[in-house]
Prior knowledge:
Blueprint: H1 3-21, H2 23-32, H3 38-51, H4 56-66, H5 79-86, H6 90-100, H7 118-124, E1 142-146, H8 152-167, E2 172-177, H9 194-201, E3 206-211, H10 220-224, E4 232-238, H11 249-252, H12 254-264, E5 267-273, E6 276-283, E7 286-290, H13 300-310, E8 311-319, H14 321-331, H15 346-352, H16 357-361, E9 368-370, E10 381-382, E11 394-395, E12 397-404, H17 415-419, E13 430-436
Parallel strand pairs: 1-2, 1-4, 2-3, 4-8
Antiparallel strand pairs: 5-6, 6-7, 8-13, 9-12, 10-11, 12-13
Helix pairs in contact: 1-6, 2-6, 3-4, 4-5, 5-6
Amino acid sequence: MNPxxxxxxxxxxxxxxxxxxxxxxxxxxxxxxxAGRLPETLRHLIEEVRRVDLPPSICEAILxxxxxxxxxxVQDLPGPRLKELTGLPPTKAVRALxxxxxxxxxxxxxxxxxxxxxxxxxAAIQDEASPFDVLLAADAPSLLDLGAGDLSFAxxxxxxxxxxxxxxxxxxxxxxxxxxxPQSKLGGPLHPDRLTLDRLRSRPDLSxxxxxxxxxxxxxxxxxxxxxxxxxxxVTCWAxxxxxxxxxxxxxxxxxxxxxxxxxxxxxxxxxxDGEPALxxxxxxxxxxxxxxxxxxxxxxxxxxxxxxRGQICVLGAVDDQVFWELLxxxxxxxxxxxxxxxxxxxxxxxxxxxxxxxxxxLAIGASMSLADCAPLRRQIPRVLPVHAPHAGxxxxxxxxxxxxxxxxxxxxxxxxxxFPDMVEEATPWMLTLIPAR
Length: 438
């Protein structure tokens, strides 16, 4: 069997298996092909085909079968092509694609936001507790992973929590976003492999969606389409990117940031790599290639603002030293932690954080502490993202726990976190678990 025929056979098998496991979604799909709904359904399907990472032959086959302009009746679509894709006649074939691309969820409204009392949230982040175990206590358990990368963390979450949540009669909602374009030749191992994607999509005990090519700070389209949960039980971000979150523009200014980037990273410029935009960085004798937005600096205020809106509990894992101290400068009360125009060099960190540095630096690997035991938490952090109801112009965190280490026994982690112990030149990273004040 040639590769294209094999890809079609594999896709048909996956569709068949999924339909056997998702009775509710299959029944819901009837409404999507009814009178007046078909043109919109086809448009959404075409959008999803272009967004999702599929084998090129499958992508082309689906687009060829669906992209016929304004179609009012399923019978006007090419039945043989649809049957080749799904093994089903036209109407059922379109319904099957709706189930495959998650357009026929168990509910036509967005997934419900979780609501947990403060006592449960506080208990979830104490001492040796795993904050992820709160998924077992939530009435509508959900997790959003920002910068989901190769989906290794999402896979560990699914393997650890999906079945126990299903045993309670609930379904775990697991969503991931990543800015890398699926077809990009940049990003290397941070791209998820197709086997992982297919496995997560086809789990009957999981409501999974992955949004590649998606800037985490531009989620409006996904919100309008109802694809995201208004507020997740957990929001995570593993290894927050450097330099994206390593410098705060409101504290340093763009000129100082550019100067510091050139000093520490080398000269850089936009270029073209095999037909796609890229950033070339001259680091010593080497030229390194990155996605074109690699040095776009958003700062910790943007990340904290996003987290505070999206999650009941927010977890930042495998946070490197530079990002960690820049984050701390924004969540602690006292302007002394936010000196203007002062890059956080190792010596500057010891000076600026002189009152808390010894206590944090001595934290043993695997140990944790409440940040409020070091210094008061900032009560009014300014929002830097567009303010829409119900979000006011300021916010804060009622609790922040600091852990030292890349990963911890009994907790799911990302593949990046698991690599930290082998990075001999990297300082031991940190984990921050934050509960936004409501």
